[in-house]
Amino acid sequence: MLTPPAARPRQLSLRRQLLLWLLLPQLVLWLGAAFLAHSMAMSYAGEVIDRSLAKSSRALARQVKPFGNGFYIDFPQAAREILEQDPDDRIYYMVSSPPEAFLLGEPAMPRPPTSLQRKPGETFFYDGRIKRLEVRVAALYLPAGTPDRPELMLVQVAKSRALNAELARKILRDMGLPLLAVMLLTSVLVWAGISRGLSPLRHLRRSVENRSPRDLAPIEIDNAPSEVRALARAINELLHEVDGQVAQQRRFIADAAHQLRTPLAGLKSQSELVRAELAATPPDVASASRQLLQVETSVARSIRLINQLLALARAEPEAGLQLATLDLRQLAREVTSEAVPLALARDIDLGLEAADDPLPVTGHGGLLRELLANLIDNAIQYTPPGGEVTVKLTRTAGTVTLQVCDNGPGIPEREREQVFARFYRGRAEGQGKGCGLGLAIVQEIARRHHTRIVLSDNLPHGLVASVDFALLPH
After folding, report:
1. Which of 156, 158, 350, 420 has the fewest CB atoms within 10 Å, counting from its CB?
2. What gap in Å lies between CA 375 and CA 387, rounded to an integer?
């Protein structure tokens, strides 16, 4: 059964995101401007229609004059035909007195809303329908009748709202088309600006894509913008670190090959001597036994060298480091106990001085164990028989200091920086069985724990190796 391929992660285009975040607000603003323009157009068109209706209602009112108990209407037929001749812009009118008592005009004129207050001489407006046609109506109440029998006369003039909508559409079209053209032109300019602004990124991408995997030279950033320059500077820093790590690994491999070549060549020579001694007639068993002892010593030195190389590789910054809370006192007790047989074999007095309280610190248990084991092993290797090696844990304000003290030959102050170099043994060459990696491992582990190792004199003679750790509250 075939399983569907895993969905590819969605790739986000910086160009697309910039266009979206630049053009989307413009679209929103354009729609808002169009809505505002439409509202303003409707308002202006309505205001124009209302003014026209108000003038028409007052002009019509002047044609109807009270006369005794009736009205004199001076409204020629020609004037009526002028008002009614355009079906698209037809004006409807009606005069009634008392109100709703038809005198003249369109009987189907919508009545004023009852909620409106009747104020004589003041024109008011409302919407209605005449034969399914939506109209805008202007109404005007005027006093009529006699002083004994006062009455009100209602003059109403109406126009179709279609003209209002048509006028609003024209205004909106005249305003919206230029806005749309400006938006399209702005979009083109934004696209061109984004393409121009992203060109340094394209140049940076091409400069990286065209590089050889072995080319770790810095990227040219002199002519780059500040934002791209920051990115290129970060890449250059990364390339510099990678170049340093690659060079360090190359030196490490070369040094390791050189250091392993000597014991392996000795093993080969010693094994050939053993074979020659055993092939002699009669075989020289005593000499062969001495040669086998040398083989055993060479194998032990090779194993120690390989183990220290592996420890140094684990302490390299490329390796993952999971820190946890641990008791430094308990760890020192365990490592010191494990080194007791080696100290007894060399007639060294090995001891631990620490308080009974726990000393919690943050660190990697395996690496800290390796750090302390290397310090103790170095002290034992270079301390003469009958000497003393002491592991001390001293608590101060927020800090615990781990010290390994011996009364051996010590290290001259001028060599204390050099002894941390890999495979460096200085004037101690020939003493002990070290291979020059112990202090290099200790320094790397201390650096991984954001601390450092300090070498000082142990008066009257000897050496003290100190490492400080932050003490956790408990």
Report:
1. 420
2. 16
Tell me what percent of the chain is helix, strand and coil, each rounded to the nearest 5: 50, 20, 30
CB 465 within 8 A of CB 442: yes
Distances (CA, A) of 307 to 161, 336, 420, 434, 453: 97, 19, 18, 12, 21
Query: What's the CA gap between 165 and 38, in Å, rounded?
Result: 10
Distances, alpha carbon 461 to alpha carbons 20, 409, 412, 458, 464, in Å: 74, 7, 11, 5, 10
* Number of alpha helices (DSSP H) and beta strands (DSSP E) in the chain: 9, 14
Is 155 within 8 Å of 109 (Cβ atoms)?
A: no
CA distance 428 to 411: 9
Q: How far is 101 from 106, CA to CA, in rounded Å?
A: 12
Q: CB neighbours of 444 closer than 8 A, spacing ≥ 6?
A: 312, 315, 316
Q: Report mean pLDDT in 10-residue bins for the chain, 474 residues.
A: 51 75 82 80 81 85 71 62 58 79 81 79 87 86 76 85 75 77 84 81 77 76 72 81 76 66 69 74 73 72 67 58 88 92 91 91 88 90 91 92 92 83 59 64 85 89 92 83
pTM for this structure? 0.48
CA torsion angle for 19, 25, 30, 35 (degrees, to 10)? 150
Close Cβ partners of 21 (under 8 Å, ≥ 6 residues apart): none
147 by Cβ neighbours in 10 Å (0-12 / 13-18 / 19+) ranks as exposed
Q: Give the HSE-up count for residue 334: Cα atoms under 13 Å, Cβ half-sphere.
A: 11
| 123 closest CA partner among 147, 149, 89, 157 | 157
The first and second tokens of residue 136, run together, are 């805008």
Question: φ, ψ for residue 456 (rounded to 5)?
Answer: -145, 170
State both tokens at 460. Answer: 């009257």
